Amino acid sequence: MPGRGRGLRAPVFVGIADLLAANGVDTRDDLRPWLDDRSHRGDLRAVKGVGPKTVDYIGNLVGRSQVAVDVHLRAFAADAGVPGLKYEQLRAAYEAAAAVLGQEPGGLEHAVWRFTSRAARGRGGAVGGM
């Protein structure tokens, strides 16, 4: 849905910034090791409006190679015959595929995202055959 949640973005950013500041995370270099502690993923998820995709995307922003499952990755999986998986299951499937292919998970994520988003533009913006 275009524009979904746009009015909520500023409070989410403020919530994340407040959480990081309260934990002494002031720089990108501070954030990467802070994310190594699995409990901090839960702390981020406790910020209203932050889901698993946001946490994974933040990891990518600090140089981790992670899969942040979005509508494009879901559509690709559905087109490949793997519909309806929960976020964590689909992320794990992409991570396993990356390992089998000898690729970084974030690299595979980006390749699938680019492929699917380009295909969607060719269909007039529809993702997943919609």
String of helices and strands: HHHHHHH
Structural class category: mainly alpha
The profile of the biggest β sheet is: none
Radius of gyration: 16 Å
The percent range for helix content is 55-70%
Distance between the termini: 12 Å
Tell how many strands the DSSP assignment holds.
Answer: 0
What does this protein structure show overall?
There is one protein chain. The protein is mostly helical and 130 residues long. The termini are close together. It has helices spanning 9-22, 28-36, 38-45, 52-61, 71-79, 87-101, 105-122. It has 7 helices and no strands. The model has no long low-confidence stretch (mean pLDDT 89). Helix content is 64%, strand content 0%.
Compile the SSE list and pairings.
Blueprint: H1 9-22, H2 28-36, H3 38-45, H4 52-61, H5 71-79, H6 87-101, H7 105-122
Quick gist of this model?
With 130 residues, the chain is mainly alpha-helical.
Annotation keywords:
mainly alpha; 7 helices; globular
